[in-house]
Structure formats: structure tokens, C-alpha cells
Amino acid sequence: MILILSQAEDISTHEVTDWLSHYQADFLRVNAEEYRGVGLEVSLSKDQSGFLRCHFKYHDTFYDLDKVTAYWYRRGGFPAINKKRSIVEKHFNAYGSVFVNAFHEQLVTEQRRTYEYLHWHLERNVNRKIGSKFNSNVNKLQVLHLAASVGLGIPDTFVTSEKARLVDYKGRYGRVITKGIQEGAFFRIGTEDLFFTNYTEEVEDKILGELPETIFPSLLQRRIEKKYELRIFFLLDECYAMAIFSQQDMQTNTDFRKYNTQKPNRFIPYRLPEDIQDKIRQLMAKLELQTGSIDMVVTPENEYIFLEVNPVGQFGMTSQPCNYFLEKRIAKYLCHHE
């Protein structure tokens, strides 16, 4: 059986499972948000007949994780057993909110540890696997450090909590950008169909006067002039690259994710130089990543500048315009149809 851990609305997973259905593969897709009929049991007995057995209950059916032949950690993880805070409050409210908070967090941690074991068990016992729960959220600063160590160009990067240091840094380079140290935020606002997200933004002079002397630690980078930018999907030691001509559109030239739906950027397949591919492979090996979406910039001087990698980034936007059929490649690997 092929096991896929994902999220209900992940389009890339839909397309891979379509191919798995085409190949008539035996697969189970588990969505992190689906709590109905969820349960688990783990046996760590010395009795040979029941040694190291893990069963996961999903939609009221128990599945033996030791019978998983291939595993794709796409996103999310095993859905948690419903742990209502109201139940904790019912039994312990008399002890005060501090105790209720602490006890509820203890229950959350207890469950988290068990699910960590399930992920660990799968990753140790399945030979054909893509992705990992344990390195699905990388540290951007560590990634930049390691990228430089393998010889990739990186932007000059600075994190500060002092307005004066920010002003000095901007004065040195003239144009600087800021972006999140963590992966991008994405929040639904209330019950309406409104969302909040953050983008890469240029730090304008007019903003500086509004800042207090001490600011929240913020990541700054020298703004890089680009000839074009690259989105690269790394899959099982291969690089599938796409050039994005975003630089001539004021809406997208700082962050192409501010998509211009009226006049979309041009996307084309792109052949990376062999030495850049080799350095990307070295970086991904250091990060222990089999897959990920990589952002790079090519400067007017034809320098390749690495920006970041998202281990669970989308790949449909690279696959479809470039006819890479990455969904098919993933499905074939999982069901051993290579």
C-alpha cells in the first residue's frame, strides 16, 4: 500500500492520486484536517507475533503501517484525535485558567510524541519515500548559511532589532527588501472569504520615520536586480527549472506572487548550468531533502543567486507550463512503474 499524508485542498496531491488511480495502485490518502473516525494503536512487544506493530485508524478502518510499501509526506501529517479544550475545562476549571492551559498543552504534547513515532517508524521502514515530517519546515537562515557553504551565491542578509542599524544597512545598499524569517503567513479573516498573507517588500524611506528605535527582529536583504527569476522543483536528485519574466511588471518585480492576472508573467522551461545543479544537489543533501521548491534569481551579469527552499512547496505551477509532468513522475516512483 502507498501512503500519502497531505491536506484536503492540496491540488498537487489531487493530480498525483489521479495518476495513481490510472495505474490502479493500492494507495491511501490521509488528510490532516479530517478528524472523523481517527484512532491509533502501537505495539512494542517482544512477542515476535506482535513486535513493533503500528496501526492507524482512519475513517473507522485500521491500517497496518508495516504494510506500507511507499510513502509520500506531502503536507500536514496524521490527523490528531479530537482533544477538546472544553473537556479539560469541565474537569479542571476549578483550578484556574493557568492550570487548564498547562494541562491542555500536556495532552497536546502527549499526542504529538506518539505521532512523531509514527512518522519516524514509517521513514525508517519504507524504502520508497518522498518527503519527511521532520524537515518539512526549514530555517531560512540555516539554509542560506548552507547554500553559501556549497558555493551558491546568496543575497547579503541582515537581521536586526535596532532601527539605527536598519537605517545604516539601507544607507549602505540604497535599496533593500524585507521578508519573513518564517514561511509566509496565511490567515483567514473571520468567517468571510478574506485572507491575510505577507509578501517580500522593498523598505521605503517613508517607512523609516514611523519606526520606533527598537523593532521586532526583522530580516533584510540587499535588493538584487534580476534579469529573470527561477522556480526550481527538486525531485529525487533532479532539478526541474522554470524561468519567470517578472522583472518588467511593477506589480511582480519585487515578489512575483503578487500575480498579475490581467497580464500574467511569462513562464518557460529552463536548463540550469551543470555546476548550479551540482551545488543544489549538495545543498539538498546537507538539508536531507528529497524534494522542495527552490527560488533563485539570475542577475543582468548572469550570476545565479539562491534565495530559499520550501520543502513542501507547490510544483504544479512549474510542472504544467513546462510540461514536466511531475505529478506523473511522483506517481510512477511511488508505485514502482519506472
Concise overview:
The chain has helices at residues 11-22, 85-92, 97-125, 140-149, 163-173, 205-208, 274-287, 316-322, 326-334; strands at 2-6, 27-31, 39-43, 53-58, 61-64, 70-73, 128-130, 157-162, 176-179, 186-188, 195-197, 201-202, 214-222, 228-235, 238-245, 266-270, 291-298, 304-310.
Key traits:
28% strand, 4-stranded parallel sheet, 338 residues, 5-stranded antiparallel sheet, alpha+beta, globular, 9 helices, 18 strands
- Sheet with the most strands, sense and barrel status: 5 strands, antiparallel
Number of strands: 18
- Rough outline: globular
Percent helix, as a range, is: 25-40%
Structural class: alpha+beta
User: Count of helical segments?
Assistant: 9
Q: How many whole angstroms does the radius of gyration measure?
A: 23 Å
In percent terms, what proportion of residues is strand?
A: 25-35%
Q: Record the strand order, biggest sheet.
A: 16-15-14-17-18
